Amino acid sequence: MQRLKSNPPCIPPRGEIQNPKSKIDVTHYQKLLRISTTGKSLYNITPEIATIVAESGVRTGLCTLFLRHTSASLIIQENADPDVLLDLAEFMAKLVPESAHYIHNAEGPDDMPAHIRTAITHTSEHIPINNGHLVLGTWQGIYIWEHRQRNHSRELVVHVSG
Amino acid sequence: MQRLKSNPPCIPPRGEIQNPKSKIDVTHYQKLLRISTTGKSLYNITPEIATIVAESGVRTGLCTLFLRHTSASLIIQENADPDVLLDLAEFMAKLVPESAHYIHNAEGPDDMPAHIRTAITHTSEHIPINNGHLVLGTWQGIYIWEHRQRNHSRELVVHVSG
Amino acid sequence: MQRLKSNPPCIPPRGEIQNPKSKIDVTHYQKLLRISTTGKSLYNITPEIATIVAESGVRTGLCTLFLRHTSASLIIQENADPDVLLDLAEFMAKLVPESAHYIHNAEGPDDMPAHIRTAITHTSEHIPINNGHLVLGTWQGIYIWEHRQRNHSRELVVHVSG
């Protein structure tokens, strides 16, 4: 494995990334978002998160998302070509097959695979906030990955600090 | 992949999720937890983390867990049926087999698989705190996933901010 | 699966982990780091992150790293034996083969595998800060895992709060 060919330059922050900042007005803003899912799929929740960040009034800070479930997960992924999401789902379907034998199968063949798929993706995600906006890259969207087939109402805690 | 059929409603926070909050008393509380592990297994550390959150006095904030190792990891998973943990372990044993060839094998056949299993799970976990309590879902527990067979003393840094 | 044989002791923090701390001087320090990558590899960025933490002046707090891309990721891994990184890369090459069929392949055979490899590793990483230093374990290094073969300039947002 190679290391960096040269030290990466500590480039002065771009416009949207500000310099050191101290302050005494501190905010911890929390909101519970309920999201209705209708089967195994990736659901783009970026607009909803952006709205909550705007509500919080935080200019420089951190947005943490926490999903209160063990059979659905979070990822940040490509937001442009929906084929990426199809390929992701196909990969996961093969990696953690519903046809395999699992001890825990009380709720059907998608029960245990949902837990495993959650374990190897993410229960929380974190995006810094700069100048009042999430610093997501151009191609990044925030997704809830529902791993269960039947309808669910999922609870996401959005925590904004700054 | 489907998008949300309709925008998920920004439901007013439930009782346990509070509205915006500004404050000037800021806490960063850190504690080092040592956990003795006795072989490959998932160890439920939820009660110990809840105790530290209570000690911190933080009412609205964020709890971050950081494991100072590269051959053990963290996950948040089902806390009710222990069969889920057995199935998780079985899946991981097959996905990252100890029988495969690895260049790095100085400490035995479970050495490199432990690093890989750590890389595809989590070194840190994060749970918001509301009303003085972790906002874990009903079925969520916090686990250290020990990937090495011999006994270890693992160091977990618990950071509570609020 | 076994639970903890006995409750892990809440050992008093070691020297480098301090007791509760309240303060009113609050810092949210953000910096954008640009990192030039030259092919699929793991790039150790620990020194650059440590420098930014020192610049921030934060003594007790949290460092969050956020990578603004969906085809490169972050992991914290063994920093001593470079063979670990070789084995990690080999495992990932087999788990998410470039030779498989993907719908999304506009940018070549390493396009979709890069997205999948990102999804099962991490877009953000988080390391507490104590006594002005990252609490990384002895063997832990912070890596950007570049999953694309051609040269890229990757943007990493470093957020230090304390």
Summarize the topology.
Three copies of one chain form a homotrimer.
Chain A: E1 22-23, E2 26-38, E3 41-44, H1 46-56, E4 61-67, E5 72-78, H2 82-95, H3 111-119, E6 124-130, E7 133-134, E8 140-146, E9 151-161
Antiparallel strand pairs in A: 2-9, 3-8, 4-6, 4-9, 5-8, 6-7
Considering the chains and any ligands shown, give keywords for the structure:
5-stranded antiparallel β-sheet; 162 residues; 9 strands; elongated; homotrimer; disordered N terminus; alpha+beta; 3-stranded antiparallel β-sheet
Commentary on this structure:
Three copies of one chain form a homotrimer. Chain A is of the alpha+beta class and 162 residues long. In chain A, 21% of the residues lie in helices and 37% in strands. Chain A has three helices and nine strands. Chain A has helices at residues 46-56, 82-95, 111-119; strands spanning 22-23, 26-38, 41-44, 61-67, 72-78, 124-130, 133-134, 140-146, 151-161. In chain A, the strands form two sheets. Chain A has a five-stranded antiparallel sheet with strand order 2-9-4-6-7, with helices on one face. Chain A has a three-stranded antiparallel sheet with strand order 3-8-5, sandwiched between helices. The model of chain A is unreliable at 1-16 and 18-22 (pLDDT under 50). Chains A and C meet through strand 1, strand 5, helix 2 and strand 6 of A and strand 2, strand 3, helix 1, helix 2 and helix 3 of C.
